[in-house]
Model the fold of this input.
Amino acid sequence: MYFASSASVASSGTTGAPPGRGSLRPAAALLVSGLVAAAALVGAGPAAADDPGQHQDGAAAVLDGLKTFDSAVLRIEGEGGEPDRTQELPAGLFEMTVDGGGKLKTYGIDLHSPTQDQAKYVETPWAETSLSGNRDAGKIRWILRHSYPQVDDLAALAEAAGTGPLTERTAAAGTQVAIWRYSDDADVTASDKQAEKLADWLHRSARRTKEPGASLTLEQAAVSGRAGERLGPVTVRTDADQVSVSPPVDAAGGAIAVTDEKGAPVTAAADGDRLYFDVPEDAADGTASLTVQATASVPVGRAFAGVGRTQTQILAGSSQSTVSARAGAAWAATGPAPALSERKNCAAGGVDVTAANQGDEPFTFELAGEEHTVAAGATRTVTVPVAEDQAYGFTITGPAGFGRTFTGVLDCATRGSVLDRENEGDGGANEIGTQSAQRSVPATTGSGTSGAEGDLAATGGSSATPMLAAVAIGLLVVGGGAVFLLRRPHPHTDGG
Done:
């Protein structure tokens, strides 16, 4: 069975298969219509992040803009014998407002990419961002922990770095410049003499540190099984003292409960606790989801990726903020019982789709033109190649309301490094990724050097940006973008 588009699947809520005891046999399609489909993905950013099928752990926030900054100068190497040139740009701290309450302060880690005004961001592991494979990612975290705003005693910071007097603006600019040298391998200097001394000290002193854990995450966030069983476990991982556990949202309308492994109802949990979906034996085939939530300070060094195409950020400071995570369960009386999940795999240049089948029959599906079968009791991950900066999306649906929708943009490299790879063989590529910035230089924010608060991000952003993003992604789709089809394979018949 084929569907006309992912939107039609979402609106119907079913596959047309009869409800009840039918097995969960997904069938779906995605992105069938160029600009229309692409624009829908861009315009539906927040909704996509809220979909239970989306991978989201920790904090979600909206970008408020660049708030504390001074200026810096990026050197752009000349091509074809042309002289080097420079580009002035603002450098400093962004602020974000957390969904549900809280504030974040962040620095950018992709200076060639623009930000979008009021862009939606979600807390993201390094492996799913441009920090994947960056041997110096841990040095960026060291810089964050040893500079402003984590060190808010500017006199002490100036003394340690030997800079002379620092202000909040010059401290922020010097810190951002040091980060760009490691995140983008950029030839960039701070305009202010003291800020430049701070950047040099941070760059020289930085040591590799480990990636911080998520503020809140659920391990095995997709589970499946049979009615009459406790499905799980779903393990809580958090720095918070306690998390609240919301009652399940049960698509089948049954009395699904969240319990511990002994079957006792759970409304609160702590780090390491294991949660289960308790499904009554007489429950019709269906799905349910649970949400855990807490108030916590997000660890310094956590990455924040845009739901759409916007500059990736790294956390420099956090107030007590609302963090949450979700898990889903699916069950069927007979046949396959798949639990489906997805995450970006920057190392492989694609998206991992994982199917865990806890049913009593094999689960077979087709993805990107290939058929895949997951035996009963087995788990299989399929990596779907996706181009850098590529919008992707697909929906897998089944009987009794079963469905998982995954959308996003693969953003695994800095814009400068992408342009450099495009230029390889042209005699103009270099190692630091700034030469090709002639076609993608950071835009300033008005005066750019005043240090006054502004609503636009350090490397661009305007009310026109979302429309431009929609058109750009649309062109990617029309020009051979990621169009993946998932369906239940039909049996072949003679002469068919």
Residues 235 and 274 are 4 Å apart (CA to CA). The mean pLDDT is 76. DSSP finds nine helices and 27 strands in the chain. The two ends are 16 Å apart (CA to CA).
